[in-house]
Write a structure and sequence with these properties.
The structure is a homotetramer. Chain A is of the alpha+beta class. Chain A is built from eight helices and 18 strands. In chain A, β14 and β15 form a beta hairpin.
Chain lengths: ~350, ~350, ~350, ~350
């Protein structure tokens, strides 16, 4: 089944495994005319790279994005943009010991059950490395959105039970034991106009939640007050409307900027909860492909916490989702459609 | 934008407003040969109906489902099944006072921003009544799944901050004040085989989360340990594999039956968090369509808690999602495809 | 598999069999604000109805279209429009004799091979009656297009080998023998702006051809000069561009208004070729469901030529296809997107 | 709009322009376990390459296909297969003269009208070179189909008005004048089982026609007798069913192997009609981007006839379409679904 594409109008298809020659994304449906160079990818790709610090692996990829199509004279042409990222630092031998066993917390067993066999090198398609392609696509989405006045702020807010700013010692201890920690990422989108999203199955929050859950290791998503809204009362949770300089606004934002699946113009507030990195150095019980019980301790280079490098992936998926909803929304009103097409009476010379 | 369909192979399209003559669903892609009668819909439709008790509105619809197509001689034919539910108990005058104002916590303002105007009667398309069509479709999905040994157990586990079993007094007090409460629904799917779901964008948990968030008022979703996994460590959160009578199993199920987007064969465990009913009798600040600040108190018949009637909607959406993933998964392996098609050498008489 | 939906943004789902209580369509993604009443459907639905003349069956349905949702105060709301057409004149006993045999030229055998059994009454889902739902959806598409200055002219141009105007005697003779004739329908769309359609798989002509071939009995489609272009030379077939009052035009239109999958602003010219009605009164060889060879002569009421009633179906499918392409095309350029969204700096009061 | 993907389960996304560094395809949804090497692509890619003879351009690309993902230890893994083909022989200066004019018979004007500007080098995305990526994807589809006993035979049958075998002199004369000719390609698929395709919008012939029309320069498609069926009578056109060794067969095949959108088990017979190559050396009238009338004569290397190199593209698109329909069809019957999933009672060790 073709599950590697996301979006309807702005459509991203990713491909590639951790240990193949490269991975990449095809971005179809990007509006024509966006200035785009290979340097544009550097800032976000760098946010996803390991920083060599406490929270990340020693594996280091340059993650240079090459544009193979869809850009001409520095601007997007409206045709598919093919983005390529070479794998330069994979060491296959790191993974040879896990070919025959099912790593706890990983998809190995599921892959075998589904496909009959799997590319066991570094998790194959399930590797966190696949998200490099999403961030590359996210760069394009964020550039389009920025031109519409929409911006993002995304941060790790918690590691395990500890606020991020105070989490150093907590992570150091776990890491020294060969253990790992969960994490929580907060993503806020500012400037999304009111009226984006659909009322039923394609609610903006439904699409955003699906997008965030499509990132490996996400186990929970909140929109606005999220889980806390379920502990609240209507009188406390409703955001009262106010009028301000001719605009409808709300003073509070418990809803996280989405009501009934449609944006309100307020900040869109999302939280993604990541489980601890499943690859740990501690010894765990498991079974081999042949059904023999055994023990395993995962070697290789693994981040002890997922959130810090995944934050930009959360932001990228949010940007792709919001842009797709924006583009789909242009035909919601007949007067908009008529304003767009009705002005001409036939083929005209392009300006 | 066409946001009223859900699913790829087993595809559900809902239509209808709270105050039109009827609402319904078209279920396309249901396998042929499923026994189906109009009586099959009664049990689940009844779980969604108000019970006249503490937690639900006095509005009462019989919610009889009529089958208009796709069933012949008591079995589905593989062609679209059109399901119709008449609206018999709507009282439009209840809603006339809200035509010109934006109800806090509702999509009214978003609808106007998106479409330029809206059907203001009872929330129109955003009414909880739309979910009756989803439950009707869910009945069919659950029947197919039951024939494959897959079953569901779904319960309200919490109202506000109180466990459901002890929540009577809490709800009574809020209701008497004209206020409302949030709630939490737990849904467990049993018997889903290992290997269902895709590794990247169409992860089984991503699709389930999107499905649950597409239900109005859901503000958070957990899979397995959900948010708590973000507080845990890898050694505590990983589910060790064991071998049991030739099967791969896990003793714990922190993952909620899904790893890397693919089912493990364990119970699939989902939690949906509902905000409090936004329609409350207490006076709230808001603005009119013309931007004039005003006060409003919502009249009409509204449940003080959403979870009790929405639990079956959660289950229906989960069933539709899992069935669609199951049907899509049949072509994952070449040997399965060859086993399916390769056995014949040409057109044969059907058995 | 869910094959009963068509379109991406303007999405039509049809349901219903010839001999069920009703059939219908759900039209999702229609822009909000289109004036629509049940009377709007009458002219096109009447073009599809048998006229009692030489070329059509005696079966007569009123084909009144009921609007069940998506319209409020006389205008579309942007939510799904559910259209219902009751079956009032089916006589099931007419078809009982064919339950056990495979009618030549019909899908009976294919249905059994695919689904294991079938609704044999009047062709079930394969009945020409299914197209009533398409025409109902086409009415909405044509209304939207008309508001953009786009109109259609569709005619039967040939019955068998005879120009339509002179075909009376030809049809009379075939009909008296219990035989049937093929036919050719010409459909011209005027006023479609230049720039509609995509360059690769979703070429406008590819989508139109698929749409026309989805009408039962269509065996060939031409765009522009069609098959004759394959007999021509580049110098004769190319349409030279000219400038006229500031517009790019062509004097000839061999291309039929589409080049490289994108509209040129010229008339879009389509031809659909229908096979003869397969239901004929003459005796034919066939087999039973049990594989026994036998003879059959089809009783019941059948048009001797398909084109005259199907012309409006061709037009409806063309309209649905063109409208969907128009709506998808609104986001092709960044300056258009920015013009649409960029003008506002936050949520504003709708006008 | 994302128009560069094709198919639902077996989904092909192409990218790339004539004059970028490379072009390619991502094939998602290919069943796992198919043996696949880079050498497998050579035969079909060679059929698409210019042979240096009378009918093709002197431009020569090696068209070596590189596999970047989705294959492990020589077999497909079920994850996306990324295929890359480098552009090695493009000479941009050949095209500089056409940057500012609209070539007759090409999409230049449409691109400008749609996107505001275009990659004018060699037609950009509209170049016939894009089809190299389709053939690469077609190789995979044909390999899967071959394992199911399905094969193709595809030939150019006519150049202009002349049968292909006798067309040498005709082409030579046109070419020497700087003119070009139309052509007709016949494609036959053998071994497709009965029961493939859907009854309504996704009729197998509708999808095949759309697939063939998505190839640039196709202006007409026939299925079976095609246009000639419209000149025939029911008694002559119906294919009588017969029983033969326990199978339902037909002696004639006017229908081309598809009835009511569903395959009959007979050969599937398709004809694609190509217009003459629009790039001709003869002088033609046209206009510049600024609306000034002018003359142009196309320089550069262009095939004088499209059919000979496009035949394998027709076959590839047919193969992709049929495979996707086959995979979608696996869930048509409940007993098939139950047979597939019902046999297990929980997660089992993969074999």
């Amino acid at each position: 089944m073709s599950g590697s594409s996301f979006g309807t109008i702005f459509r991203v298809t990713t491909w590639g495994e951790s240990h193949g020659p490269a991975l990449g994304a095809v971005v179809d449906g990007c509006p024509a005319g966006l200035p785009l160079t290979e340097d544009d990818f550097t800032p976000l790709m760098n946010r996803r790279r390991p920083d060599g610090g406490l929270m990340s692996t020693a594996r280091s990829e340059e993650d240079r994005v090459e544009i193979l199509s869809g850009v001409f004279e520095g601007r997007t042409t409206g045709t598919p943009i093919s983005l390529l990222i070479r794998n330069t630092d994979h060491i296959s031998s790191d993974y040879s010991s896990i070919a025959g066993i099912y790593r706890p917390g990983h998809a190995d067993f599921g892959f075998d059950a589904k496909y009959g066999f799997r590319d066991y090198r570094g998790g194959g398609r399930s590797s966190g490395r696949e998200t490099a392609a999403r961030v590359a696509a996210g760069v394009i989405a964020e550039k389009v959105l920025a031109s519409l006045g929409i911006s993002f702020e995304t941060n790790v807010v918690r590691i395990g039970d500890v606020p991020f700013a105070e989490s150093g010692e907590y992570v150091r201890k776990l890491r020294s034991k060969g253990d790992s920690a969960g994490s929580e990422v907060l993503c806020v989108a500012r400037g999304v106009p009111a009226g984006i999203g659909d009322p039923v199955f394609r609610k903006l929050d439904a699409e955003l939640a699906g997008a965030l859950f499509s990132i490996g290791a996400v186990k929970a998503v909140d929109v606005g007050d999220g889980r806390l809204a379920a502990r609240s009362t209507g009188s406390a949770n409703n955001d009262a409307f106010r009028a301000e300089s001719g605009r409808v606004v709300t003073r509070t934002n418990h809803s996280g900027g989405i009501l009934g699946g449609i944006s309100t113009g307020n900040d869109i507030v999302l939280r993604a909860y990541f489980k601890p990195t499943p690859s740990i150095g501690l010894t765990q019980d498991t079974v081999t492909r042949d059904g023999v019980e055994c023990e395993t301790a995962i070697r290789g280079r693994h981040d002890p916490v997922i959130g810090p490098r995944a934050a930009v992936v959360v932001e990228s998926m949010a940007a792709i989702t919001i842009l797709d909803a924006l583009l789909r929304g242009m035909s919601a009103r007949l007067d908009s459609v008529a304003g767009f097409y009705g002005r001409e009476e036939g083929p005209v010379l392009p300006d």
